[in-house]
Amino acid sequence: MEPSTPPYPERKNLKLRNSNDDDPDWASLTLGVFVCQACSLLHRSIPHISRVKSVQDTWDASEVELVAAMGNSAAKAKYEQKVPAFYYRPTHTDCKLLREQWIRAKYERNEFEFIEKQEPYSAEGFLWKRGRDNGQFLSRKFVLSEREGALKYFNKQDARDPKAVMKIETLNATFQPAKIGNPCGLQITYLKDNSTRNIFVYHSDAKEMVDWFNAIRAARFHYLQVAFPGASDEELVPKLTRNFMKEGFMEKTGPKHTEGFKKRWFTMDDRRLMYFKDPLDAYARGEVFIGSKENSYTVLSGLPPSTQGYHWNHGITIVTPDRKFLFACETEAEQRDWIAAFQRVINRPMRPQEYAVEAHFKHKP
């Protein structure tokens, strides 16, 4: 992404030179900012606004002067002066859709210079939703109501009663273009009877989809402001939406450890480890709560010596106060990544509200 404190360009044979190897190799000679290579490709999608050039190319004196006069810090002060607290600021690890719409919002639509150019972040409209049973994407009406504290969708345009009501309290949204198979694919999750429910949606218009995403964040922000009146924006913003810590296939066996291992899709969502038969299933086949080391949760590399029935050779054992969970990964690299994800959660002390979640898992039928 665009660094906030770029080096000033040096004049040497009318080229921009960066003395640090980590500095960006591209600059927008119309906006006067340095950009990384990934963002330079996105800037090329708005050539009427931004014209990018390699710092290794020969520059005219006027071009050098423009970048020297502006720079990233001044550009940020200008183009990001009125970014709402809830608006998602993407990083280089986010999907192309989020990064491109952030660039367009700043430089093409000037949304953060002029409040009147910002969309009203309340949403009602139609999204393509994947059917729970048949896997087909059908147009469904969605309504996000802060007053009711819920996101609802309707199977028919004139329906009076919603098909589902998703409370803002447990709502999350994360872009999943590869999983859904659409560049604008969004995965929405919420708790239903304290179990996770997945909804997969998309819209053909990229801006519309990002507006929905930020509308959910706005609704979550206002809900949390009421729920935690003394909390600062800096404390609330990280709680608005979250990406999953890790996803991928592993094998698992049952509680007796005598059943054959079965391949399942796993999603690590904070302390909830969920497994699905298919990545696009609406409901998890099961969920595992991952507590902290202070509460006797540990993760081990490998499987108990007597374990049989696995096809993948890179085992993981999660020890909880009640039982052991056995998993197997296809590669050593996947095993390392999963263990690292589990360890991050286990090393973090549990918050008071997480003890109630743990208790629910222990009493699940």
Automatic annotation (TrEMBL):
Protein name (record): ArfGAP with dual PH domains 1
Keyword hit for Repeat: yes
Pfam families recorded: ArfGap (PF01412), PH (PF00169)
Domain Arf-GAP residues, every copy: 1-120
Gene Ontology molecular function terms on file: GTPase activator activity; phosphatidylinositol bisphosphate binding; phosphatidylinositol-3,4,5-trisphosphate binding; zinc ion binding
Stretches assigned to the PH domain: 120-221, 243-347
Keywords linked to the UniProt accession: Cytoplasm, GTPase activation, Metal-binding, Repeat, Zinc, Zinc-finger
CC per GO annotation: cytoplasm; plasma membrane
InterPro entries named among the record's database cross-references: Arf-GAP_dual-PH_domain, ARFGAP/RecO, ArfGAP_dom, ArfGAP_dom_sf, PH-like_dom_sf, PH1_ADAP, PH2_ADAP, PH_domain
Species per Swiss-Prot/TrEMBL record: Amphiprion ocellaris
Localization per record: Cytoplasm
